[in-house]
Amino acid sequence: MARADPLRDYNAKRDFKRTAEPAGKRASSTAGNSFVVQKHDATRLHWDFRIEVDGVLKSWAVTKGPSPDPEDKRLAVRTEDHPLAYGEFEGLIPKGEYGGGTVMLWDRGTWAPIEGKSAKDLDKGHLHFTLEGERMKGEWILIRLKPRPGEKRENWLLRKIDDQFALQGDVLVDRALTSVLTGRTMEEIAGDTAGSHSLAGKKGKAFSETMADAGRHNARIVKTAGKTRSAGKKRGPAKLPDFRPPQLATLVDQVPTGNDWMHEIKFDGYRALVAVSGNKVAIYTRSGLDWTDKFAPLARHLAALDLPPALIDGEIVAYDKNGNPDFSSLQNVLKRGHGSQTEATPLSFHAFDLLELDGQDLTVLTNIERKERLEALLAQAQPPIHVADHVIGAGEKLFAAMCNSGQEGIISKRIAGRYVSKRSRNWLKVKCVLRQEFVVIGWKKSSARARAFSSLLLAQYEDGKLVYKGNVGTGFSAPTIDDLSARFAKLEQADPPAEVPREDRREVTWITPELVAEVAFAEFTAKGSVRHASFIGLRSDKPAKSVTPEKIAHIADTEKPVEISSRQRVIFESGQTKGDLADYYEGVAGLILPFAASRPLSLVRCPQGRSGKCFFQKHDSGSFGDHVHRVPITEKDGGMEDYIYVDDAAGLLTCVQMGTIEFHGWGSRVEAVEQPDRMVFDLDPDEELDFDAVKLAAKHIHDRLADIGLTSFAMLSGGKGIHVIVPLKPGHSWAAHKDFSHRFAQALSLAEPDRFIATMSKAKRKGKIFIDWLRNQRGATAVLPYSARARANASVAVPVAWGELAAMKDAHPFSIGDAKRLITRARSKGLACWGFAEQALPDF
């Protein structure tokens, strides 16, 4: 009996004289395990998930798109099988044809059933599998639902399994807005294919056409959100960023306290500066040596990420048998030559800083903002590439945990600190056991026949001269002894390189001072020698001449704390005091500073409390003191005025001491005042509208921005509205910034005049939502994330994930009493990298 054609339904539904879709022919790919996801804006927007089975693509229409959140069970409607050739289709299906609308190749890769399962499980109504795509990764499951009476379609659920690739919320759908094949947006695909302005879908079309009318442009309005996307998936041969000396940490005697500090694990490995640009990678040691070849497997993993030009700071580590970073294990890996092998590398790279991105110098930004941008850049990275996690405050707990697990210690970074290529007190290191580097100047013969030497003599450079520091006689394995002995034989010399006491010179063979050893010890003796020393390993990433003593500084903070007077003064009708407000800002400093630091500010000051007289202040005559800074900015009349800005928690608290409740920021930074980097659409509803209408409007704006390739973020204003925030790379003018936001808001109001209005007129706003685009002009400000609001209930402006917005009952669910909840919430997967996206203002 002839086998039924699995593509019969596919072919019957299409007129291939009208559609560019490929005709249905059964085939087989090389590997036989491909998968694709196509974003499809037909009658309604959905994502078509397809996996290769028996020479065809088994297909499901996922109505809300794949979610990386294990809590989300996405409806997936089974559709007809598609030919393998369909996995490369991207374009416009003509109106009137089956599935008419825009199709984007949204993801692609390979799939595999988990061990013990197979594609035949689909017949049983379930499939447990893994994906290795450009966006979808890890374990997933498809489950067929029991059909309801009379139901014709076959309904399944697509769900992510909780693994290392799981995330919270709809971050894939919200932020993955371009084709993996061509880099185009949905608007570009529709426009390039049809030669029109059309955004797929009725509302999208109306929006696009009216936006073009509003801007009085005849050409297609949006070419790309960053021109480099139009050339295809892989990036061009942009120049690698240059090496720059890394920032070094100061050794201190205890962990700094307070929320001014973020704390990371101190990794026990090799410091590395990684320069990347597309498939080009260079890995440098902390002294600038090019060790790309030594770490070739890591370089290949980094190249596969296809990153824009960037300079990343981090640590390369290997792990011991307990899974802990271990310097000796790292040395053993390099000795065995695993750095150049083609198989999976036993090394990992833990990135902890981002110095340069796409030609932009980020060292002028705060530590916490650079870390946020790093997390956004490496959001799709997977082992062996990691982003080092951090905690804000609570450094003592992290330090105790590291010491209890046998780790080296922690690095503490001042949240508002900048990156400097030298040792700084903005980076501190606290060690569980003292460890320093020493130059090996000689060795003592061992009386044991099986041991080539008993101990090594150590020294460090002080004022350009080697100074003896004692010896180390433990911590040597048999292979280490053999390796060191072979090195010593080539370095023997007659005279001691340093002055050594007579009692320590007996039976010593002197060597040329070239080898650098890392040694753990309890303390220095009164004579300056190490006590209870243990050999860790040789360091080849640092020249001997650079080895100097590392002095331990006392952590006692020399900065005078900001004193808050009248802490008991009640300033909110709900009872919160000035002291409560100060405690809130001190607690959330690490959350607000990435958005507030180094930005010209307007302060809402209420010296007598919220019910008293409140006023805006943006200039400073000097009354705020040293923690609040000033930047001269040219006014419209050509004159110069000093504007306020802060860069640390002390600055925030100084403003609170002066009666400040709210912080509003410019859309640009003090170092580039004329180059805006943030666009804000403030949705201000008429009093007749409920909050549900505002939430729907915000999501609608998010979708329209997504159509033109812009990632956006939602923030509850702390009042009655929602802000839709679009982070942008600086480089365009205020005129272009204002023009785009104006035409965007105008297009929405023209496309849906019963819903939106883009003018401030209160008389015309009845029953509508005002899209306030006026915050996107030079000198205008918008309330900053995590700012308190001068409202009766002491509410707070709070970021939210798009996936959680629907559950919010109003725009003010948090108050200044919720600092701990907000800190915990901010580190959730759903809010990871909130407010950060590397994207340019569309060129039109």
TrEMBL record:
Swiss-Prot/TrEMBL cofactor(s): Mn(2+)
Reaction(s) the record says it catalyses: ATP + (deoxyribonucleotide)n-3'-hydroxyl + 5'-phospho-(deoxyribonucleotide)m = (deoxyribonucleotide)n+m + AMP + diphosphate
Region (Disordered): 1-32, 225-244
Compositional bias segments (type: Basic and acidic residues): 1-24
EC number: 6.5.1.1
Keywords: ATP-binding, DNA damage, DNA recombination, DNA repair, DNA-binding, DNA-directed DNA polymerase, Exonuclease, Hydrolase, Ligase, Manganese, Metal-binding, Multifunctional enzyme, Nuclease, Nucleotide-binding, Nucleotidyltransferase, Transferase
Family annotation (InterPro entries): DNA_ligase_ATP-dep_C (IPR012309), DNA_ligase_ATP-dep_cent (IPR012310), LigD_ligase_dom (IPR014146), LigD_PE_domain (IPR014144), LigD_pol_dom (IPR014145), NA-bd_OB-fold (IPR012340), NHEJ_ligase_prk (IPR014143), NHEJ_LigD (IPR052171)
Signal peptide interval: none
Enzyme class of the recorded protein, top EC level: ligase
GO MF, any single term: DNA ligase (ATP) activity
Positions of the ATP-dependent DNA ligase family profile domain: 340-431
Name of the protein in its database record: DNA ligase (ATP)
Lineage: Bacteria, Pseudomonadati, Pseudomonadota, Alphaproteobacteria, Sphingomonadales
